[in-house]
Every structure is written in C-alpha cells, then in structure tokens.
Amino acid sequence: MTSINPSTGQPLPPDAIQRVLFIASEVHIYQIPPLTSTKGYNAAVWTADNNARQIFTARLRIIETAIPAPDGSELVTTDILLEDPSNGQLFAAAPYTAPAVVEQVLDSSRFFAIMVQGDGGRKAILGMGFEERTQAFDFSVTLQELCRVNGLDNLSGTAGKKGGRSAKSQEKKDFSLKEGETITVNIGGKGRRSRDENRQPLSKNSFSSSPFSLPPPPSHPRLNGEGKSSTLPFLPPPPSAQDVKAQRRLSRQLLPIEGDGEAPTDFGFDDGEFGEFQ
Q1: Which mean pLDDT values do the consecutive 10-residue runs of the chain (278 residues) have?
Q2: Which of 21, 66, 185, 267 could form a disulfide with 62 if both were Cys (CB 3.0 to 4.6 A apart)?
C-alpha cells in the first residue's frame, strides 16, 4: 500500500517512514470568528448558543513523515490531521511548522485554535476542543516534544532535516587535553604556609604609626640595691608584733634611769605576761 504525504496529497517514496505520534478518537471542530483582541481566543464564544458554531466531530492524528534525502539526511515533516472517524477521509490538515500553528485559548485547557492549510496554500483557523482534559494535556506535551526535538522554535521553513536538527544544541564539546596541555590543581590550605612566611613581622614603631593602636603598658619599676625604687618613693612595711614587744621592753628598762625613779606599776599599769602585745 502506497503511503500518501498528508501535507501534499502525493504518494511517498517506498523508503519513506511514517509514524503516529498522537491520536484522539473524538475532537469537536468549531467555526470561530476572527480574532478581535491581541490577548488570544476565548472558547466561551465558540460554545455559546448550545454549540451553534460546531461543525462536526473529527478524529485527530499527529503523523511524522521521514523522507530520505540523497545526501544521507532525512527530510522530516509533521502534520496534524483532522479525519472523518467513520471512514478516515481527510477533512483538514495542519502542517506543524511552528508553535504558532496551534494556540491554546485563554479560558480553558481543553480548547485550541488550529491553523489548517488547504489546496493552493489557503489557510483557515478552526476551533478544536477535547472531551477529556487528559487528552488535551497529552496533545500539548506531544507538541512541546516536537518543538524540542525538531528545533521548531528556531526554524522558519516548512520542514527540518534530521541531519541538521538543533546542530548547536547537539554539538558535542571536546574537553580532552591536547598534546602539551597541562592542568594545575590548587588544593586548599597547601599554599597557606607560604603566604604566612611572606608576611613581614610587626615592628615596634608600627604601634605608634597606626592611629588606632594602643601603646604597650609601662614596665614594672626596678628596685635598686637598697630595696627602694629608683623612680617611685618606697614605703617601709609596718613593724611586726615581736618588734613592738621588744621596743616596749627596751623602753621599760630605760624608764627608771631616765625618769624620777618611779616604776610603771606605781602609775597603775600592769605590764606582766598578759600584756597588750603578748
């Protein structure tokens, strides 16, 4: 059975390959009014008046066609087909050459505006709605994958070549070392000692040169040979109890000689063993 190119209606070469990327058994097709706002389409206008703008219910298929080229590459095209679900007759086809071919509406995740193309290159925009949200989600994911693989975001033509798909993104970079090239690895902490050795020690004058540094505290005063300070006056320690007691005993012995011959007991003082400094 000879395969037919959906976008042109012409037979395909025997070595051409076609595969179905997505299929939905039922989608509703609407005749929508021209776009009046730059924001986008609203599905509420299509389904108003009890779906008065609905044309019919179709089967949706996304088909990818790969045609080998003489230079060894492959010419790849993708088409969105709207077919009669009863006999498979083609109703309309939309060559998916750019993301703008299918546009999601603003007020629903199940409805899309699709740009179909007929004989002679005539184009028309139809409304399309899915019964289930899961089908609409799978449809969107399929289109996103096509844009990623075929690089449709950067292409302005009608088809892409598999040999030249996303050449920039798929180009492999060679990070291997060429002859004579070396790699220098700096390990953290290894060169810290050399940096510390290169530091110059702080001099004594550095404290005075810095406006924010404090001078060192004064040194402790030195004592001379007599036990006195050469800079500050020296106070002798207080006498001990034994020195006071010896002084009193000495004064007691000298009192009868220097005085008028009266002992301390004559004045009522008792300086016995229980003295004040015993």
Answers
A1: 72 87 94 86 89 91 89 86 89 90 92 88 91 94 90 54 47 74 74 58 53 62 55 68 83 61 53 52
A2: 21
For 14, how many CA atoms within 13 A lie in the half-sphere containing its CB?
Answer: 0
Beta-carbon contacts of 36 under 8 Å, excluding residues fewer than 6 positions away, are: none
Query: For 158-186, what is each residue's pLDDT tens digit?
Result: 444 444 444 444 566 777 777 778 888 77
The answer to whether 95 and 7 are in contact (CB under 8 A) is yes
Token look-up 């505006």 returns 113
- Cα-flanking dihedrals φ and ψ of residue 150, to 5°? -85, -5
Structure pTM? 0.54
CA 52/CA 23 separation, integer angstroms: 26
Can you read off the two tokens belonging to residue 262? 């009266």
CA 35 centroid distance within chain: 41
C-alpha closest to that of 59 among 84, 34, 37: 84
Which amino acid, one-letter code, is at 123?
Answer: K
Determine how many CB atoms are found less than 10 A away from the CB of residue 139: 23
Q: Alpha-carbon distance 201 to 206, whole Å?
A: 10
Going by the DSSP 8-state scheme, the letter that residue 130 receives in this structure is E
- Cβ-Cβ contacts under 8 Å for 75 (sequence gap 6 or more): 66, 67, 68, 69, 159, 161
Question: Alpha-carbon distance 223 to 273, whole Å?
Answer: 41
Note the pLDDT of residue 159: 41
- Please choose, from the candidates 129, 79, 76, 75, the residue with its C-alpha nearest in 3D space to the C-alpha of residue 101: 79
